[in-house]
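seq as requested:
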Amino acid sequence: MTTALGAAGELAIQSLIKRAPLASSLADAFRKEGFTLALVGGSVRDAILGRLSGDLDFTTNAPPASSRKILSLWAENVWDIGIAFGTVAASRGDTTVEVTTYRSESYDEESRKPEVKYGDSIEKDLVRRDFTVNAMALELTGDAPLFIDPYNGLGDLALRLLRTPNTPQASFSDDPLRMMRAARFASQLDFEVADEVQSAMKEMAGRISIVSAERVREELSKILMSSNPRAGISLLVETGITDIILPEVPKLKLEIDEHHHHKDVYEHSLTVLEQAIELEERLGGPNLVIRLAALLHDIGKPKTRSLIAGGGVSFHHHEVVGARLAKERMKALRFDGETIEAVTSLISLHLRFHGYGDGEWTDSAVRRYVRDAGDYLVHLHVLTRADCTTRNKRKAASLAATYQSLEDRISVLMEEEELSKLRPDLDGAQVMRILNVKPSRVVGLALDFLLELRIEQGPLGPEIAEKELLKWWASRGEK
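struct tokens:
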């Protein structure tokens, strides 16, 4: 359906003028060369919702090479890395645009890459979009702007409902990642997913396996970084998609034996994720590392679950097993090494606090806690506090008070001893001079010894540290 602007189109135009005033000059540039240009997809949706950013998506009948030529004259920077798929990107001022030639694309049954074919009309282009709310367009190069909505995306937007322009089966066959996008929009926009879409997701969940790990990772990260990740994760679990991309999470739905009652670990993990999000201001805002660690912190439980005679259940060393499983899964999803290291470290440490008891840790134990957490100490504070999901208010208050006492002790030691800069009292050059040795493995061993001494006894100063180093050296039978 192509109509005059109407209320929705007027709203989109006003949002476009306010938030992306350069769009009209870009439309003029395409019009002068005899081509059409339309704002499309999520940009139209967000313009109607009043949440348009400076990142805009357009579609055109111009061939990719022509788009590149026009953009090279209009923009300050142009990137044609996606030109093989019909997309040319550019930026000018605070506005970034992607211009894509009308197209249709589909996946071969076994292929991870789409086969791209260029189309000849915007209506045919819109039918290949993922959801009706993203299949609206605003034509900008005619005599007057036209609002194009052939699949009633505006109606679905009003209902906050996700449907597909084509059948869900056809849509997900063309691009299986759209199943994860449904979960993402449920999380980001608080949309409901139509029953027929959910049914198709269950039916076609296995098709997600042909999508590259990098694309899956990006969608999963966007779900986790949304305002309501529970909605998206729950949908992926219920439709069986996580059985393929993140099987450790649905496995948390441990069977509850009538004689061995314990928490539903899956629900507990989602609650920990939500509670961690509530504490994220300590980390400066939304944080992918803490959200991943919160979701995955108990994934070692299914493999370590053991029933206790007489009632009860145990999960001994689940933090160790969980860290290993998280590392394997995150590597498979192509997360970067720094993120993997941070998340697995937090998982391996998330139970350490429970040895604190009523505060009987020595100062050396507190120093080790800080040393092992490293740059992620505040993350560990957030995860440990979020991991308390008991409904017993007295127990919850006691745990919070005990952890606060640990944080207070850390703060005092930080101030007194600069724990954040925990180092041996001597450096490598001093060790080599005192022991009269050259750079070698033994220097590293000596520094390890001095660091342990620093943790156990606090700051020693260089004189005492030298005496202790010589004692250690003599104990090894060295001259």
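The domain at 254-421 is CATH 1.10.3210 (Hypothetical protein af1432).
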